[in-house]
Amino acid sequence: MSNDNERIALLEIGTEEIPTSYIEPALKQIEQTTLKEFANLNIKHGSIKTFATPRRLTLIVENLSIKSEDKSEEILGPSWKAAKDINGQWTQAAKGFATKNGTMPDKLNKKITEKGEYLSFTKKTKGEKTETLLTVIFPKIISSISFPKAMVWEESEFKFARPIRNIIALFGKKVIKFKIADVNSSNWTIGLHTYDRSKIKIDSPENYMTVLKNKSVLVDQNERCEEMKKSIEFVVKSVGTVVADEALVDEVNYLVEYPSAVLCDFDKKYLDLPSEVLTVCMKKSQKCFAVNDKSGKFLNCFVGVKNGVSKYLDIAKEGYERVVAARLADAEFFYKNDLKSDLNANIEKLKGVVFHKEIGTIYEKIERVKKIALLFNKEFSMQVDEKSLERAVMLSKADLVSEMVFEYPELQGVMGKIYALKSGVDTDVAESVEQHYLPLSASGKLPSNKLASLISLADKIDTLAANFSIGLEPSGSADPYGLRRAGIGFIRIATEILPNKELSSAIEKVFEFLPENIKNNPKSKMAYEKLINFLRQRIEGILESEGYSFDEVKSVVSILGSNKFKDLGSFLPKLAALKNARQKGDFSSISAVFKRINNILSQARKQNIDVLAIINESLLVEGAEKNLFDCIKKTKAEVVEYISQNKYAEVFDKVLEIKPSIDGFFEKVMVMAEDAKIKSNRISLLNYTKGIFAEFLDFSALQ
After folding, report:
1. pLDDT digits (tens, 9 = 90+) for 382-399
2. Are 591 and 699 in contact (CB under 8 A)?
3. Which is it for strands 71-79 and 164-171: parallel, antiparallel or unpaired?
4. Which residues pair with 74 in a beta bridge?
5. Looking at the predicted structure, is the pLDDT value of residue 132 above 50?
6. How many whole angstroms from its chain centre is CA 642?
7. Is the confidence at residue 81, as pLDDT, over 90?
8. Under a CB-based contact definition with an 8 Å cutoff, are residues 169 and 175 in contact?
9. From residue 468, how far is each of 357, 476, 494, 518, 533 by CA, in Å?
10. What is the pLDDT of residue 218?
11. Among 120, 37, 114, which residue's Cα sits nearest to residue 78?
12. Rounded distance between C-alpha atoms, residue 254 and residue 8, angstroms
């Protein structure tokens, strides 16, 4: 296709400032909708790019065809037998089908399908001008974006994250005209709102980025992020280095359209506060970055990122310092007051803090967590000192009633550790207070010591059991109590510290510690089974995130069966060995062999044929079945030994070794023999063959 038949399309949605957390999901939706619409309308295109600032969401489509492709669609009509009567004339059914499709019966075709012969008509649709189609596609893209919360601000009651103020819609130099939210599309936008709100004309999509850059707007979020990092590095290089905080970088990147770093400072007296407190104060109040000196020590400096070019930096500096100073003064007051309180008094206060109205208070929760932690410690022989464990559990939530955590909830656990150390608590116990919340995300770091890991397991499984028992399960994207995160955290920690344990029995006992009103709740009857299934789904998600395919993960996880939960540490090594084995020999046909065995066993159960645990050798009359039995007997002991030693690659080698014997059995032996005893014995032999790997892998799940 020549360049004369392609254009660049540009859509910019200019708005008031959009919340930072809304922007990335909105860009993904824009891209997905664009791809879908172009595919539906058969429009060829090149790369689709999305960009954003706090005040604009932008779509650029390169190499977009000037018209959609011609389309041919085959439509099936009545059966061929019903198309003509005994005289060979077209029937009313055939005529009706032709009329419906705007043609004559003689123009219809015969189509031969698996179900028989039918009348058919090939409908040809001419391509349309992309310019015309975009008048529908662009509004649809804008309307399709959903946000956690949306606003209505004009008479049409169109909903969007923030009011839309302008829309650029271009196909080459041509303005695509439409109206949405009482805003007419055009070829103009607005520059950096804090400096210049005059209209900026965009002649063509090719000039869009450059024109806005000249007006102090960096539309490309990746370019803007790099510019921000360079600006921060430049202003701090004389004093030290900025404290790394990628989450804050990402957030600030969507707060500004042109970043300019400003180096600020605060009174040295506040360096007596914990560095975690200083960092959070700066981050929460003004989205500022903490700074270390050249030796790595916390410095009484911080960096603010101003929206706009580097003018009036003194005014910006003064504003940042004034707000941060006020927040640090408050933090100092909270900190000193908290240190006056006894931690035991804080524990008592937890009796008045509700965890959930149906589940009880935080104090009641930590009492349950203590029982669960002691249970796990004993059941799994973890050998954690019980006194330290009990003390750590009781202190784990004590900072929730501190003034500092009340003001800065993100410091929960962190302040608990600091206050515990200040009161003379052992380091391991104090660290467990902070680390029992870990991991904070699906891929976040895990607790670093056994004590913290044990409390984290107990805390998370209590939360899960209690919520499932009152019917509060995640549904769709809704998970207001963070149960998916708790489930993933539980799995990851259990995999790390209890890789070879059977967990289901201990998990079931957790439900016994719940309050009587919850245990008597009708919703609690199936809570255990639902929780086990929920955790199994989390395992599958974790393993798939490691890059393994759905069928590989299913083959490993499905061996757990119902209400089983064990050997979590074996899953990844098995998957690695499986992926390697699939590249060897004739492994691709293994799945078909075991599926065939499964189907035969399923038929046998439906026919009430006995499947025996012991094979009667005297009933093995064919050479192929004798060969399979001898092969399986020899292989079984070796497989058990390999599995016990975690030598999974060798197990897969054995699978390949026995496959010829299984193939020979199916080629030469009639499984469903007339003699009932022989038939039962052969089916039992297949079940015995499958059973060797029943606790290892479900080969029939492989695609």
Report:
1. 999 999 999 999 999 999
2. yes
3. unpaired
4. 122
5. yes
6. 35
7. no
8. yes
9. 15, 16, 20, 10, 12
10. 97
11. 120
12. 26
DSSP string, 396-431: TTGGGGSHHHHH-GGGTTHHHHHHHHHTT--HHHHH
pLDDT at 58: 98
Q: Six-digit token pair at 364? A: 């009641």
Tell me the C-alpha to C-alpha distance, in Å, between residue 283 and each of 225, 245, 274, 279: 17, 10, 14, 6
Name every residue whose Cβ is closer than 8 Å to that of residue 1 and which is 6 or more positions away in sequence: 44, 63, 65
Shortest CA distance to 575 belongs to which of 648, 626, 641? 648
Find residue 248's DSSP bridge partners. Answer: none
Distance CA 316, CA 305 (A): 9
End-to-end CA distance of the chain: 39
Nearest to 692, CA basis, from 615, 582, 606, 580: 615
Q: What is the pLDDT of residue 1?
A: 39
Which of 501, 648, 665, 534 has its CA nearest to residue 593?
Answer: 665
Identify residue 219 by its one-letter amino acid code: V
Specify the length of the chain in residues.
Answer: 703
Query: H or E element: which one contains 463?
Result: helix 450-469
- Who's near 4: CB < 8 A, 6+ residues apart? none
Residue 2 pLDDT grade (very low, low, confident, very high; cuts 50, 70, 90): very low
Q: Which of 6, 11, 7, 3 is nearest to 170 (CA)?
A: 11
Structure tokens at 610: 């006995």
Nearest CA-CA partner of 171 in 135, 213, 210: 135
Calculate the dihedral angle through the C-alpha atoms of 618, 619, 625, 629, rounding to the nearest 10 degrees. Answer: -50
- Interatomic CA distance for residues 606 and 625, integer angstroms: 23
Place 114 in a pLDDT band, splitting at 50, 70 and 90: confident
Tell me: pLDDT of 124 over 60.
Answer: yes
Handedness of CA 204, 206, 211, 217 (dihedral sign): positive
Q: What is the pLDDT of residues 679-689, one digit of tens each?
A: 999 999 999 99
The Cα 53–Cα 192 span in angstroms is 10
| 520 vs 245: CA distance, rounded Å | 47
Per DSSP bridges, beta strands 164-171 and 183-186 are parallel
Token duo for residue 230: 């360079």
Angle 638-643-647 from CA coordinates, rounded to 5°: 90
Q: What is the pLDDT of residue 561?
A: 72
